[in-house]
Write a structure and sequence with these properties.
The structure is a single chain. With about 180 residues, the chain is an alpha/beta fold. The chain has helices at about 15-25, 35-40, 45-55, 55-70, 85-100, 110-115, 130-150, 160-175, and strands spanning about 5-10, 30-35, 75-80, 105, 150-155. It has a 5-stranded parallel sheet with strand order 2-3-1-4-5, with helices on both faces. Helix 6 (about 110-115) crosses helix 7. The longest helix has 19 residues, at about 130-150.
């Protein structure tokens, strides 16, 4: 298998960055976030990209960042919550899983996600009525997360250490 040892997908507030950095630390590998890649490439924030250029432009940039990271990164990779809404990105993730890679869906319930994201201006799709938007996202994206993942770990109201342990178990079950 080539590419990341682990790819994390899930909605905003699922814990992709927190869990991903914890798993990377435990495995002794680098952590990478495709939102940070897009921001580095464009010199602007994801929120500003949404406002200035719209979601379709951001999703195209995100898809390119995912493709690059899947090809060159060997550590833990976290994708933005909406990355799975792009069909080309889903194809890449499914192929990564079929090729022996681990794609873990960090699943979270609405109350836990809402508590974690709060009223963050850095999350453009949650700017108005975050709880309702989260509920809608979770419902509409769940089949997409399920489609691309090789394992699911629930993060709702759980200590980070327990989630990291479950994710590590999912990685080891695929790599052993």
């Amino acid at each position: 298998m080539t590419g990341p040892v682990l790819v994390l997908v899930g909605p905003p507030g699922a814990g992709k960055t927190t869990v991903g950095t914890g798993v990377a630390r435990r495995l002794g590998v680098p952590f990478r976030d495709t939102d940070a890649d897009v921001e580095a490439a464009t010199g602007t924030t994801v929120a500003d990209l949404f406002v200035q250029h719209g979601e379709p432009r951001f999703r195209a940039l995100e898809q390119a960042a995912v493709a690059t990271a899947l090809a060159e990164h060997t550590g833990v990779l976290a994708l933005g919550g909406g990355a799975v809404t792009n069909a080309a990105t889903r194809e890449l993730l499914v192929a990564h899983g079929r090729g022996g890679g681990t794609v873990v869906w960090l699943d979270v319930d609405v109350p836990s996600a809402a508590k974690r994201v709060g009223l963050s201006r850095d999350r453009p799709l949650l700017a108005v009525n975050p709880r309702a938007m989260l509920r809608s996202m979770l419902e509409t994206r769940a089949p997409l997360y399920r489609e691309v993942s090789t394992a699911t770990v629930t993060t709702s109201a759980r200590p980070v250490g327990d989630v990291v342990a479950d994710v590590l178990a999912a990685v080891r079950s695929v790599t052993s």
